[in-house]
Amino acid sequence: MTSIDPQSGFLLDADRRGRSRSPSLAQARAELDMTASDPFLEHRSLLFAIAYRMLGSVADAEDAVQETYLRWRRAMEHGEEIRSPKAWLTTIISRVCLDQLGSARTKREQYIGPWLPEPLAGVTPDVAETVADFDSLSIAFLVLLESLSPKERAVFLLHDVFGYDFASIGTIVGESDAYCRQLAKRARAHMAERRPRFTADRAQQERLTADFLRAVSEGDLPALIETLTDDVTVFSDGGGKVNAARKPVAGRDKVALFLTNLARLAPHGTSFRMEPINGQPGIITLINGAVQNVVTFDFADSAISSIYIVVNPEKLLSLPSALSGSGPSEDQTQ
């Protein structure tokens, strides 16, 4: 499994998608004695937070952090004068992410079925510390970001989420201050069009998630319907690797029937557990203790308006080590 050494920001094991660890990275780690005061380590959490929101993938965000470190190391070796390490590192990782987004967009157009971001489970202080941070971390928010162009996404995140001024952002993305303001305004309009006007607060989200879990696990169709909006939609991401609905399922009755049928067909040893996913209440399905899928929600008018189911096994590999094991669970057996 891929993980990051908290003292260095390096990938510890072979990349979970089958790529070997870069020799240059291993050499860099061996040759450079990094201390706790190294500016890269000081800002690594911020770099990952930016990269994950930009790319929607833990693995790709780790790659971007890794590439940023290698460029930082080369700059140090060449004696480059860097007055503000934070600004320099933020600029580099933003540009690395913009490059990745260009190729990612092509891949996602060829993706089998709906594409969903890779979920983060458990407590994630590296990427969110405040309520606003968690709002910008939700799967629903990351899905909305997919409607933006790469530069709109970068400008919107850097300004509205991370608080950078337009002059700094213009330097990062290679555009004027005025154009960056236009990009941000356009991005906000796109996001506002797709966001519900009224959404549930944290307590309501937890109650709705618990009610949803109880209704699905007990096969209680009327109770499940009560948790859903009329126009609720289910998006399933299997990536063509496992069985999953390749088209969204829309409408309260269709969604409720779809979900109760899935639960009814669950094999012996299936259990459901509530866990924090991307800063919001979510559900993890396990079979004999192995993670099978992750379910997250978008909420509107005190009900569930969208359901996101990640089944693609490549997007679930980082989850087992992050599970808290403290959330309520429901057993489902045949």
What does this structure look like?
The chain has helices at 23-31, 39-55, 58-77, 85-109, 131-135, 139-145, 150-161, 166-173, 177-194, 202-218, 221-226, 252-264, and strands at 228-237, 249-250, 270-277, 280-287, 290-300, 303-310, 329-332. By secondary structure, it is α+β, with helices and mostly antiparallel strands. α2 (39-55) packs antiparallel against α3 and α7 packs antiparallel against α8. The protein starts with 22 loop residues before the first helix and ends with a strand. Mean pLDDT is 83; it is low at 1-32.
SSE order and pairing:
Blueprint: H1 23-31, H2 39-55, H3 58-77, H4 85-109, H5 131-135, H6 139-145, H7 150-161, H8 166-173, H9 177-194, H10 202-218, H11 221-226, E1 228-237, E2 249-250, H12 252-264, E3 270-277, E4 280-287, E5 290-300, E6 303-310, E7 329-332
Parallel strand pairs: 1-6
Antiparallel strand pairs: 1-2, 3-4, 3-7, 4-5, 5-6
